[in-house]
Amino acid sequence: MTELVAEAARRLQAAPDAESTMRTAVELAQRDIEGVDAAALSVIRARRRIETPAATSRAARSCDELQYDLGEGPCLDAVWEAEVVDVPDLSDEPRWPRWAPRVVDEAGFRSMTCYRLFLADQTVGALNLYSRAPDGFSAVERDHGIAIAAHIAVAVRDAQQIDQLQAALDSRTVIGQATGIIMERSDLDAFQAFVVLTNVASDLDRKVRSVAEEFVVTRRLPGTPEGVGRPPRAPYDG
Protein backbone atom coordinates (compact mmCIF):
# COMPACT_ATOMS: atom_id res chain seq x y z
CA MET A 1 0.00 0.00 0.00
CA THR A 2 2.88 2.37 0.77
CA GLU A 3 4.20 2.09 -2.78
CA LEU A 4 0.76 2.76 -4.25
CA VAL A 5 0.30 5.86 -2.10
CA ALA A 6 3.77 7.14 -3.03
CA GLU A 7 3.09 6.63 -6.73
CA ALA A 8 -0.28 8.36 -6.40
CA ALA A 9 1.38 11.36 -4.75
CA ARG A 10 3.91 11.63 -7.57
CA ARG A 11 1.25 11.44 -10.27
CA LEU A 12 -0.90 14.04 -8.56
CA GLN A 13 2.02 16.46 -8.30
CA ALA A 14 2.86 15.92 -11.97
CA ALA A 15 -0.59 17.02 -13.18
CA PRO A 16 -0.30 20.39 -15.00
CA ASP A 17 -3.39 22.14 -13.63
CA ALA A 18 -6.31 21.81 -11.22
CA GLU A 19 -8.61 20.13 -13.73
CA SER A 20 -6.00 17.49 -14.56
CA THR A 21 -5.19 17.01 -10.87
CA MET A 22 -8.81 16.29 -10.01
CA ARG A 23 -9.25 13.94 -12.95
CA THR A 24 -6.08 12.09 -11.95
CA ALA A 25 -7.31 11.89 -8.35
CA VAL A 26 -10.52 10.01 -9.15
CA GLU A 27 -8.76 7.73 -11.63
CA LEU A 28 -6.14 6.78 -9.03
CA ALA A 29 -8.77 6.21 -6.34
CA GLN A 30 -10.70 3.80 -8.54
CA ARG A 31 -7.56 2.02 -9.68
CA ASP A 32 -5.77 1.70 -6.36
CA ILE A 33 -8.54 1.11 -3.79
CA GLU A 34 -10.04 -2.35 -4.01
CA GLY A 35 -13.82 -2.45 -4.30
CA VAL A 36 -14.27 0.96 -5.93
CA ASP A 37 -16.58 0.82 -8.95
CA ALA A 38 -16.67 4.60 -9.40
CA ALA A 39 -15.08 7.64 -7.80
CA ALA A 40 -16.01 11.30 -7.77
CA LEU A 41 -14.68 14.52 -6.30
CA SER A 42 -16.84 17.11 -4.55
CA VAL A 43 -15.21 20.55 -4.49
CA ILE A 44 -16.22 23.66 -2.56
CA ARG A 45 -16.62 26.72 -4.77
CA ALA A 46 -17.47 30.33 -3.95
CA ARG A 47 -20.32 30.98 -1.50
CA ARG A 48 -20.15 27.41 -0.17
CA ARG A 49 -21.48 26.01 -3.43
CA ILE A 50 -20.39 22.41 -4.05
CA GLU A 51 -19.95 20.77 -7.43
CA THR A 52 -18.38 17.64 -8.91
CA PRO A 53 -15.69 18.61 -11.45
CA ALA A 54 -14.30 15.07 -11.84
CA ALA A 55 -15.82 11.58 -11.79
CA THR A 56 -14.95 8.23 -13.32
CA SER A 57 -18.53 7.58 -14.46
CA ARG A 58 -21.70 9.45 -15.30
CA ALA A 59 -23.51 7.46 -12.63
CA ALA A 60 -21.17 8.67 -9.89
CA ARG A 61 -21.45 12.27 -11.08
CA SER A 62 -25.24 12.01 -11.16
CA CYS A 63 -25.33 10.58 -7.63
CA ASP A 64 -23.15 13.44 -6.37
CA GLU A 65 -25.30 16.04 -8.10
CA LEU A 66 -28.48 14.49 -6.72
CA GLN A 67 -27.11 15.16 -3.23
CA TYR A 68 -26.60 18.82 -4.04
CA ASP A 69 -30.13 19.07 -5.43
CA LEU A 70 -31.72 17.35 -2.42
CA GLY A 71 -29.44 18.88 0.20
CA GLU A 72 -28.64 15.50 1.77
CA GLY A 73 -26.12 12.71 1.35
CA PRO A 74 -22.78 11.34 2.56
CA CYS A 75 -20.66 13.60 0.35
CA LEU A 76 -22.21 16.68 1.94
CA ASP A 77 -21.80 15.18 5.41
CA ALA A 78 -18.12 14.51 4.68
CA VAL A 79 -17.57 18.09 3.57
CA TRP A 80 -19.36 19.79 6.46
CA GLU A 81 -19.70 17.36 9.37
CA ALA A 82 -17.42 14.29 9.48
CA GLU A 83 -13.97 13.47 8.16
CA VAL A 84 -15.05 9.99 7.01
CA VAL A 85 -18.59 8.87 6.21
CA ASP A 86 -18.99 5.12 5.75
CA VAL A 87 -22.17 3.73 4.18
CA PRO A 88 -22.21 -0.09 4.41
CA ASP A 89 -25.58 -0.63 2.70
CA LEU A 90 -27.44 2.08 0.82
CA SER A 91 -30.55 -0.11 0.62
CA ASP A 92 -30.88 0.10 4.42
CA GLU A 93 -29.80 3.67 5.13
CA PRO A 94 -32.05 5.99 7.20
CA ARG A 95 -29.72 9.00 7.26
CA TRP A 96 -30.64 10.21 3.76
CA PRO A 97 -34.19 8.95 3.09
CA ARG A 98 -34.66 10.77 -0.22
CA TRP A 99 -31.20 10.25 -1.69
CA ALA A 100 -30.20 6.68 -0.79
CA PRO A 101 -33.15 4.77 -2.36
CA ARG A 102 -32.73 6.61 -5.65
CA VAL A 103 -29.01 5.78 -5.80
CA VAL A 104 -29.79 2.09 -5.37
CA ASP A 105 -32.67 2.10 -7.86
CA GLU A 106 -31.23 4.41 -10.51
CA ALA A 107 -27.46 3.80 -10.34
CA GLY A 108 -27.16 0.37 -8.74
CA PHE A 109 -24.65 1.41 -6.08
CA ARG A 110 -25.00 -0.38 -2.75
CA SER A 111 -22.26 1.08 -0.54
CA MET A 112 -19.82 3.96 -0.43
CA THR A 113 -17.25 5.80 1.63
CA CYS A 114 -16.63 9.55 1.55
CA TYR A 115 -13.48 11.28 2.80
CA ARG A 116 -13.20 14.95 3.62
CA LEU A 117 -10.36 16.61 1.71
CA PHE A 118 -8.86 19.03 4.19
CA LEU A 119 -5.70 20.71 5.39
CA ALA A 120 -4.98 22.38 8.71
CA ASP A 121 -6.74 25.61 7.71
CA GLN A 122 -8.94 24.68 4.77
CA THR A 123 -11.51 22.14 3.60
CA VAL A 124 -11.23 21.54 -0.15
CA GLY A 125 -14.10 19.09 -0.67
CA ALA A 126 -14.59 15.32 -0.50
CA LEU A 127 -13.47 12.14 -2.24
CA ASN A 128 -16.50 9.92 -2.88
CA LEU A 129 -16.06 6.19 -3.52
CA TYR A 130 -18.96 4.09 -4.81
CA SER A 131 -19.33 0.30 -4.84
CA ARG A 132 -22.02 -1.89 -6.38
CA ALA A 133 -21.64 -4.42 -3.56
CA PRO A 134 -22.88 -4.07 0.04
CA ASP A 135 -19.97 -3.56 2.45
CA GLY A 136 -17.82 -2.92 -0.59
CA PHE A 137 -14.73 -1.73 1.29
CA SER A 138 -12.69 -3.61 3.86
CA ALA A 139 -11.15 -1.87 6.86
CA VAL A 140 -7.77 -2.01 5.12
CA GLU A 141 -9.13 -0.33 2.00
CA ARG A 142 -10.90 2.33 4.05
CA ASP A 143 -7.55 3.16 5.68
CA HIS A 144 -5.95 3.22 2.23
CA GLY A 145 -8.61 5.73 1.21
CA ILE A 146 -7.67 8.00 4.12
CA ALA A 147 -4.05 8.07 2.95
CA ILE A 148 -4.98 8.71 -0.68
CA ALA A 149 -7.43 11.45 0.32
CA ALA A 150 -4.74 13.28 2.31
CA HIS A 151 -2.49 13.48 -0.76
CA ILE A 152 -5.40 14.49 -2.98
CA ALA A 153 -6.30 17.35 -0.63
CA VAL A 154 -2.80 18.82 -0.79
CA ALA A 155 -2.48 18.35 -4.55
CA VAL A 156 -5.88 19.89 -5.34
CA ARG A 157 -5.30 22.88 -3.04
CA ASP A 158 -1.86 23.53 -4.56
CA ALA A 159 -3.16 23.19 -8.12
CA GLN A 160 -6.05 25.56 -7.42
CA GLN A 161 -3.68 28.18 -6.02
CA ILE A 162 -1.41 27.92 -9.06
CA ASP A 163 -4.40 28.27 -11.40
CA GLN A 164 -5.60 31.33 -9.49
CA LEU A 165 -2.16 32.92 -9.69
CA GLN A 166 -1.95 32.24 -13.42
CA ALA A 167 -5.41 33.71 -13.95
CA ALA A 168 -4.37 36.86 -12.07
CA LEU A 169 -1.23 37.19 -14.18
CA ASP A 170 -3.20 36.66 -17.39
CA SER A 171 -5.72 39.28 -16.30
CA ARG A 172 -3.00 41.85 -15.62
CA THR A 173 -1.43 41.13 -19.00
CA VAL A 174 -4.57 41.60 -21.09
CA ILE A 175 -5.63 44.71 -19.14
CA GLY A 176 -2.16 46.15 -19.71
CA GLN A 177 -2.43 45.44 -23.44
CA ALA A 178 -5.83 47.12 -23.67
CA THR A 179 -4.63 50.13 -21.69
CA GLY A 180 -1.65 50.50 -24.01
CA ILE A 181 -3.85 50.53 -27.11
CA ILE A 182 -6.11 53.21 -25.61
CA MET A 183 -3.07 55.30 -24.64
CA GLU A 184 -1.74 55.19 -28.19
CA ARG A 185 -5.05 55.88 -29.93
CA SER A 186 -6.41 58.55 -27.61
CA ASP A 187 -3.21 60.27 -26.48
CA LEU A 188 -3.89 59.50 -22.81
CA ASP A 189 -1.57 58.58 -20.00
CA ALA A 190 -1.75 55.15 -18.35
CA PHE A 191 -4.09 56.21 -15.56
CA GLN A 192 -6.51 57.95 -17.92
CA ALA A 193 -6.54 54.98 -20.27
CA PHE A 194 -7.29 52.61 -17.39
CA VAL A 195 -10.14 54.86 -16.26
CA VAL A 196 -11.62 54.68 -19.77
CA LEU A 197 -11.49 50.89 -19.58
CA THR A 198 -13.11 50.74 -16.14
CA ASN A 199 -15.80 53.24 -17.19
CA VAL A 200 -16.80 51.02 -20.10
CA ALA A 201 -16.85 47.93 -17.89
CA SER A 202 -18.99 49.73 -15.31
CA ASP A 203 -21.44 51.01 -17.93
CA LEU A 204 -21.86 47.52 -19.38
CA ASP A 205 -21.87 45.77 -15.99
CA ARG A 206 -18.97 43.59 -17.07
CA LYS A 207 -15.61 42.73 -15.59
CA VAL A 208 -12.68 44.88 -16.68
CA ARG A 209 -10.82 41.78 -17.88
CA SER A 210 -13.75 40.76 -20.10
CA VAL A 211 -13.89 44.19 -21.74
CA ALA A 212 -10.11 44.24 -22.15
CA GLU A 213 -10.07 40.80 -23.80
CA GLU A 214 -12.73 41.82 -26.32
CA PHE A 215 -10.97 45.11 -27.07
CA VAL A 216 -7.58 43.46 -27.62
CA VAL A 217 -9.13 41.01 -30.10
CA THR A 218 -11.55 43.32 -31.95
CA ARG A 219 -9.78 46.67 -31.43
CA ARG A 220 -13.20 48.16 -30.60
CA LEU A 221 -14.25 49.16 -27.12
CA PRO A 222 -17.67 47.63 -26.43
CA GLY A 223 -20.44 50.19 -26.20
CA THR A 224 -18.49 53.04 -27.83
CA PRO A 225 -19.58 54.03 -31.35
CA GLU A 226 -16.13 55.12 -32.42
CA GLY A 227 -14.62 51.97 -30.97
CA VAL A 228 -11.63 53.77 -29.49
CA GLY A 229 -12.42 55.20 -26.13
CA ARG A 230 -13.87 58.09 -24.25
CA PRO A 231 -12.13 60.66 -22.13
CA PRO A 232 -12.14 59.85 -18.43
CA ARG A 233 -15.07 61.14 -16.44
CA ALA A 234 -14.40 64.24 -14.41
CA PRO A 235 -13.69 63.41 -10.76
CA TYR A 236 -16.60 63.94 -8.42
CA ASP A 237 -15.87 66.95 -6.25
CA GLY A 238 -19.20 67.43 -4.59
Automatic annotation (TrEMBL):
Domain ANTAR: 155-216
Annotated keywords: Kinase, Transcription, Transcription regulation, Transferase
Translocase recorded as keyword: no
MF GO annotations: kinase activity; RNA binding
The keyword Kinase is assigned to this record: yes
Transmembrane segments: none
InterPro entries, A to Z: ANTAR (IPR005561), CheY-like_superfamily (IPR011006), GAF (IPR003018), GAF-like_dom_sf (IPR029016), GAF_ANTAR (IPR012074), WH-like_DNA-bd_sf (IPR036388)
Name this polypeptide is given: ANTAR domain-containing protein
Organism: Nocardioides flavescens
